[in-house]
Q: What sequence folds into this?
């Protein structure tokens, strides 16, 4: 790693100042900072959330207050406001806005399953029901 930094510093002397700074920062970055997960986005549209229901009455129970709409650029909205989400590999997290801190597992192209505080899969499932 030291040789990479030394090489970057020697090359940085021949670069414009802004590029030299960027090259030095890149060379000094930890080699293991990237864990292999890719950043993704969810398909745009309205996601309706539901809990398992009763086999005799209804197969599922919709939970309207948990529903949301995915928009452009990792954004989402609810009746309470707007925010941003992060989808890294199969881990989906609302990072700002009214659902901030809620975590889900990406279980299908158009489906998320809520994670419990201990990291286990919860019962709430949110599926895309319409396009925006």
A:
């Amino acid at each position: 790693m030291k040789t990479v930094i030394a090489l970057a510093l020697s090359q940085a002397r021949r670069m414009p100042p802004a590029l030299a700074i960027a090259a030095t920062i890149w060379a000094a970055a930890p080699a293991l900072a990237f864990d292999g997960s890719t950043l993704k986005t969810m398909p745009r549209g309205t996601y309706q959330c539901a809990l398992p229901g009763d086999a005799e009455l209804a197969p599922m129970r919709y939970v309207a207050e948990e529903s949301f709409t995915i928009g452009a650029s990792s954004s989402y909205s609810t009746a309470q406001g707007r925010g941003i989400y992060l989808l890294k590999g199969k881990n989906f997290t609302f990072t700002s806005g009214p659902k901030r801190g809620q975590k889900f597992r990406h279980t299908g192209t158009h489906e998320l399953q809520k994670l419990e505080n201990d990291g286990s899969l919860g019962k709430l499932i949110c599926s895309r029901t319409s396009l925006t």
Residues 30 and 60 are 47 Å apart (CA to CA). DSSP finds two helices and ten strands in the chain.
